[in-house]
Amino acid sequence: MRESSSKRAHPVSCLIAALVLVPCAMPAAIASDFPVADKILVEKAKRQLHLLSNGVAFRTFKIALGFAPDGDKEQEGDQKTPEGYYTLDGRNPDSDYFLSIHISYPNSADRVEATKKGMQPGGQIMIHGQPNQPTYSPAYYAREDWTNGCIAVSNSDMIDIWLMTPNSVPIEILP
User: Fold this and answer.
1) Residue 151 domain-assigned (yes or no)
2) Is 135 exposed, middle or buried (0-12, 13-18, 19+ CB in 10 A)?
3) Among 135, 127, 126, which Cα is nearest to 62's?
4) Which CATH number fits the domain that encloses residue 162?
5) 161: three-class secondary structure by DSSP
6) 152: pLDDT confidence band, cut at 50, 70 and 90?
7) To pair with 136 at 20 to 30 A between CA atoms, which of 27, 34, 77, 111?
């Protein structure tokens, strides 16, 4: 995900700033009732991402995966979405997609496996919204697996995920 090199305010940055400021103006009771995930569970086969609190899903989102969704990611460029245990470890409001949250792939086990096979594990796996400059119709993005290995959701779902997940929250990605 590239960062924008523009000097003026990015529309997504303005939206995020507005969303962050709105809770500050809310009464404390409403702000404290806002759900926050303590874990994310992704079920690739079902094309679902669940936000969990104390082991219970409180939100579920429809997802799109990499062009080759079956199986675990083994190497850079294989178009697969990784499987395993990771954490959310970075956020980019100015990516080429509507918001992006980085997943800590590859972990040490992924690196060891790739090295054994003489491959590079790849990286830059994100949860993100739709492309800022789409090349296909909205219907295509809603029904197809279209990423290079990332987990994609609608833009409105991405806002919810962005707001309901703290940094360093664990994410488990199942086949």
Assistant:
1) yes
2) exposed
3) 127
4) 2.40.440.10
5) helix
6) very high
7) 77
Q: Is 150 helix (H, G, I), strand (E, B) or coil?
A: coil
Query: How far apart are the C-alpha atoms of 116 and 145, rounded to whole Å?
Result: 29
Per the structure, the complete domain to which residue 126 belongs is given by 11-174
Beta-sheet pairing, 151-152 with 126-128: parallel
In a domain, 67, yes or no: yes
Residue 1 lies in a domain: no
Residue 5 belongs to a domain: no
The conformation of residue 80, written as its DSSP 8-state character, comes to P
What are the residues whose beta carbons fall under 8 Å from the beta carbon of 131, sequence distance 6 or more?
96, 97, 98, 141
Complete DSSP assignment for 14-71: HHHHHHHHHHHHS-HHHHHTS---SEEEEETTTTEEEEEETTEEEEEEE-B-BSS-SS
Predicted TM-score of the model (pTM) = 0.81
Instruction: Read off the pLDDT of residues 3-45 as tens digits, 9 standing for 90 and up.
Output: 444 444 555 544 554 444 444 444 443 445 679 999 999 999 9
Phi-psi category of residue 118: left, alpha or beta, with phi > 0 → left and psi -120 to 50 → alpha = left
Domain total in the chain: 1
